[in-house]
Amino acid sequence: MIAAVGSPARGEGLEELGAAEVVVGLNTVTEPVFGVLDNVGGKLLAEAFSLVSDGGSVQSIGMASNEPTTIDFEAERRLGNRKRLEPFTVRAPFQADLDYLLTLLADGELDPQIGLRDTWDNISAAAAALLGRKVAGKAVLRVA
């Protein structure tokens, strides 16, 4: 598994979590990949899609870049690879999925990667830290 990050600091600890390789951007990835989970969107999603091999897929699960994605599908067709790009959507009901995730958390089988804990009173600072990409992981705010 290759983890692509925006800076070396954002890649800290990913090898310990199972990444075989951590790269900044995708410029050094030269071999095809079978699957991609992308939460950045924009140019990075287009670059990742171009790396997907025959039969593989990209799961677009977010848009942290807040940039639109432009993919040259004609160029992709000429490569002859059959691949898919699928957007992640949340559909109700999702109670069973939440129950499963909570069970994994309770059993210690899932690490939520919490990078910031604070109170709801500091929501502005937490939002600024998240938007400024200063938090590696999730932000959890307690309601007092």
Major sheet details: 3 strands, parallel
Instruction: Please state the average pLDDT score.
Output: 92
Topology, number of strands: 7
Order of helices and strands: EEEHEHEHEHE
Give the low-pLDDT segments. none
| Assembly of the depicted chains | single chain
Structural class, please? Answer: alpha/beta
Instruction: Count the DSSP helices.
Output: 4
Helical amount: 25-40%
Write down the overall geometry: globular
Strand order of the largest sheet: 3-4-5
As a percent range, the share of strand residues is 25-35%
Distance between the termini: 40 Å
Radius of gyration: 18 Å
Could you give a quick summary of the protein structure above?
The protein has 144 residues and is α/β, with parallel strands linked by helices. It is 26% helix and 26% strand. It contains four helices and seven strands; from the N terminus they run E-E-E-H-E-H-E-H-E-H-E.
